[in-house]
Amino acid sequence: MKRDLLSLQDWTQQELLDCLSLAAELKALGPIGPYRNELAGRSYALIFQKNSLRTRVSFEVGISELGGSSMYLTDQDFKLGERESVADTAKVLSRYVDGILIRTYSHNLAKELGENSSVPVINMLTDFCHPCQILADVMTIQENFKDLSATPICYLGDGNNIVHSWLNFASRVPINFTIGTNERTLPDLELVEYSKRKGVSEVKLIYDPVEAVQDAKILYTDVWSSMGEKEKTNERRQLLMPYQINSHILSKAAPGAKIMHCLPAERGWEITSEVLDGPQSIVLDQAENRLHAQKAILLMLDRWFRS
Ligand code: CP
Ligand code: NVA
């Protein structure tokens, strides 16, 4: 059956947990494990309308390690939704490739691609969410703390696509998730309410950064202005400076708290170099785990597709 990963809400709790277990197994096995040819003969179209380092390289390497091949497509190749309709592109690509991966601005465009393709579609980031990132992040937390639901996670900063994916995850799998942000940089409040209403996780929104990080074992942040909204940088820097992750705010969290950032970072703004490069930072494990988590996503979607 064709399934997509456009949002973490697309998958059940069990499917997300299975994906995390498979990701850990793939990491332990390394690139020459028993899955190394599972995607032999499969081709993937990777469409990027925004820049990327981690996502592009980890998907290309992951597909290659599983025996498949990938092609990198940008607006210089074809302008999705401009030269022809998104639906036509989806239908044509579905005749050539075994999966379509998209990084774009509009989440609705990614959904349209999913609705019109007959092969699996993976969201590699939209303005609304970044599901692959959060699966790698959860995997990284599981490597550091035995009990995910007993590990308070505090996200400090802009209420952006990363927060939305955390909220989607929280609506499926039990976590303890606090957002510390300004009232002018809030995430989608309907999604906050949805993830609270589901009753799966403890979800809080707190304006005071010191109160937000209290008891947190994970301190997470991301850039204050995402791709496509860099004109908001100056305003955001004024609003969000109190939410910067620095040694002072770290001293207010649980002892030994770990530092996470999806990267790329704007050092000296949402996080200081001292903390980002410090002994409590796990950002490079987090970046590495993109590879393992995405290999698991590819395998799960391919297995469903063939069954
Ligand atoms: N974290 C992340 O998605 O990084 P890139 O934008 O470099 O892919
Ligand atoms: N919120 C950031 C994440 C980058 C991986 C952005 O969308 O630019």
What distinguishing features does this structure have?
single chain, 307 residues, alpha/beta, Rossmann fold, 5-stranded parallel β-sheet, 12 helices, 14% strand, binds phosphoric acid mono(formamide)ester, binds norvaline
In this entry the ligands are: phosphoric acid mono(formamide)ester, norvaline
Oligomer: single chain
Strand order of the largest sheet: 7-6-5-8-9
CATH topology of the largest domain: Rossmann fold
How many domains would you count in the coordinates? Answer: 2
Distance between the termini: 6 Å
- Strand residue percentage: 5-15%
CATH superfamily (homologous) name of the largest domain: Aspartate/ornithine carbamoyltransferase
Describe what is shown at a glance.
By secondary structure, the protein is α/β, with parallel strands linked by helices. It has helices at 13-29, 54-65, 86-96, 107-116, 131-144, 161-170, 189-197, 209-213, 233-240, 247-252, 273-276, 283-306; strands spanning 43-48, 69-74, 99-103, 121-123, 153-156, 176-180, 202-206, 218-221, 258-261. It folds into two domains: 8-130 and 288-306, Aspartate/ornithine carbamoyltransferase (Rossmann fold, 3-Layer(aba) Sandwich); 133-286, Aspartate/ornithine carbamoyltransferase (Rossmann fold, 3-Layer(aba) Sandwich).
SSE topology:
Blueprint: H1 13-29, E1 43-48, H2 54-65, E2 69-74, H3 86-96, E3 99-103, H4 107-116, E4 121-123, H5 131-144, E5 153-156, H6 161-170, E6 176-180, H7 189-197, E7 202-206, H8 209-213, E8 218-221, H9 233-240, H10 247-252, E9 258-261, H11 273-276, H12 283-306
Parallel strand pairs: 1-2, 1-3, 3-4, 5-6, 5-8, 6-7, 8-9
Helix pairs in contact: 1-5, 1-12, 2-12, 3-4, 5-6, 5-12, 6-7
The structure holds phosphoric acid mono(formamide)ester and norvaline (NVA).
